[in-house]
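Following the same procedure, backbone shapes were mapped to integers, yielding the entry below.
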Amino acid sequence: SAPGRFADYFVICGLDTETGLEPDELSGENFEQTPLRRTFKSKVLARYPENVEWNPFDQDAVGMLCMPKGLAFKTQADSREPQFHSFIITREDGSRTFGFSLTFFEEVTSKQICSAMQTLYHMHNAEYDILHTPPTSDKESCSSTGDCNGTSVSKLQRFNSYDISRDTLYVSKCICLITPMSFMKACKKVLEQLHQAVTSPQPPPLPLESYIYNILYEVPLPPAGRSLKFSGVYGPIICQRPSTSELPLFDFPVKEVFELLGVENVVQLFTCALLEFQILLYSQ
């Protein structure tokens, strides 16, 4: 049986430099996009511990849900703010495990990956020129008028490009906690503080491994009806578990529902729930 730990796994997903750039088939065909706008396969790079008896690790599910859009590449000209999301894995027996992921961007240090991205751009630009080169008669009219849609589109297409001699390439990476309960706020703080420790010029008070070990092996689940306070990298983290007589744990801000859907849609959704209508939420 589960020993009642706060978290079961710490997972790292991202670019596997050994396998290189593999198109992400689950994201659909997107070869018409510039290489920086395409999605590539992400891999589970590491997990700690390797496995726990009460919660077998599902590598395919965790890898896909940690980075559902696959790997993303950007340059220094793009915004690279970290993004947080959560997910649920429901097994055949109905049991659930919860995941919380923080995705950020780090500089690509592999020369092979940078060269591969540059090659993809050379191929993309060559194919684009072939597809959009006007016939001879159109070329003459373009040169006489000084205006050609193909040329203007080509310039626009190459605006979001990558030049290995000029640009710095960044790739998305993800750190994730797999937990038996949905302590969203606490997990978000843990991951944000770990990311801050990695990117900070000053080293954290203790080695990062000690904080990961602490969250996996030394922080227990709070008893029902009690709260728990434990130490993060830079400050305390608090989570609270409702008692058996209270509503189930819902550790997500209701404010975000109103921001995303609007007041009228929330009222309509609540009405449908009370009337027991079937509800389908569709999202990209």
Remarks:
- Confidence is low (pLDDT under 50) at residues 149-159.
- The helical segments are 59-66, 111-132, 136-145, 149-157, 184-199, 208-218, 254-261, 263-274.
